[in-house]
Amino acid sequence: MPPVEIYSQTPGVATQPPPPPTVTPPSPKKGIPKLAFIIPAILVLLVVLFLVGRSLFSKVGGGETTITWWGLWEEEATVAPLIAEYQAAHPNVKITYQKQSPQDYRERLTNALAKGTGPDIFRFHNSWLPMFREELDSIPASVMSAGEFAQTFYPVATSDLTSGSGLAGIPLMYDGLTLYLNEEIFESAGKAPPATWDDLRQLAISLTTKDEQGTITQAGVALGRTENVDHWQEILALMMLQNGVSMGNPTGKLAEDALNFFTVFSSVDGVWDATLPPSTIAFSSGKVAMYFGPSWRAFEIRQQNPNLRFKTVGLPQLPKSSQGEPDISYATYWVEGVWARSKSRQAAWEFLKFLTSQESLEKMYQNAAQLRLFGEPYPRSDMASLLSSDPTLGALLAQAPNAESWYLASRTFDGPTGINSQIAKYFEDAINAVNAGTAAGKALVTTAEGVKQVLSQYGLSRE
């Protein structure tokens, strides 16, 4: 038996207990304390990054898309309520409307776009598409398909705004040539409005009065010259289109007949001459029985003579070979386009789509009518009935479905190098030449060559 070690104790002396056995503590679970701190930190960081990123994204354009809109004729008060309504529904979109002066507008717009500082949305004339083709964006199909566009607006808009495979603008208004009548003169003479150009010619002769010296004291119609007939460009274009003239090559008997007929009112019938004031002023003064102009001329007429009683009627037509043959009218109107290089293109188109709704167009019309005689005529064909009884707009919109247009329009402010200004100069020379005794065929030879040169500048065929 092995010896047993017995701890001896000395009496009166405390004995030290033996040290406790060494116990190795269990290893802690790795990572638990670190994750407990890291995970909340990561979550906080992600939240901060999200908030900062959203703020930055908003400033860059995702949350606050900015749209600059250059307008021409409408006051800010007319469009501001519509902008406010849209921004309320789209709080991340900010729209600034800037009314531009028509003077040198086309040149200023061209320069701004060339410098890269152009507006996101801008108004342009329906005849300007060749001059801005490269700067105009096409309507995205997601905003408005070609089919929807054709069903919404008058056919002339589709014809004028088709560029390549897309549509390059959205009209918020329509306008065109219409025939104004002095109601008092017609009632006093017991005459009815003319239906054909021959009717108009006979009426003009019978309604013209002259004094003993042969001076015209009351003109039957303002036609036949260029220096004092406002909108002679549209009138001549209307006559030629109705007569089947190819405007890009205005030669041959059809073109000659139209040119001669335009000048006959001055050169043969003597119902208008160069001594008279501009036709708009003459009509406003009550001294002209019939006058051609777009609807907006009514503002000027009413301002110059608040007591003048006038209305518009359908444009005269050529005799029809068949009863179903449509009338032809002439359109000249303005369109909203979107800059192809705008960073806000999609938002700009969506805003314009909002403005084309019936509700928005009615609101704009009512807003404008508080500032002037009436608002801009509706561009939607399904809204024509709303203005059918208007003494100025009813006849205009009744003819809109059959309207045509071309690059011959007055007061588009496209400048001396603009397509309208250049083409108008050649037709002006032809009218003046015929009034001076030159044969129409000879005068139109020069016109046709000049028109060909202008069209070629913009890559257009002799349509």
TrEMBL record:
Region entry Disordered, spans: 1-27
UniProt cross-references to Gene3D superfamilies, sorted A to Z: Periplasmic binding protein-like II (3.40.190.10)
TM annotation in the entry: 35-52
Organism: Candidatus Woesebacteria bacterium RIFOXYA1_FULL_48_16
Alphabetical list of Pfam families matching this protein: SBP_bac_1
Biased composition (Pro residues): 16-27
Keyword check for Plastid: no
Keywords: Membrane, Transmembrane, Transmembrane helix
Name of protein: ABC transporter substrate-binding protein
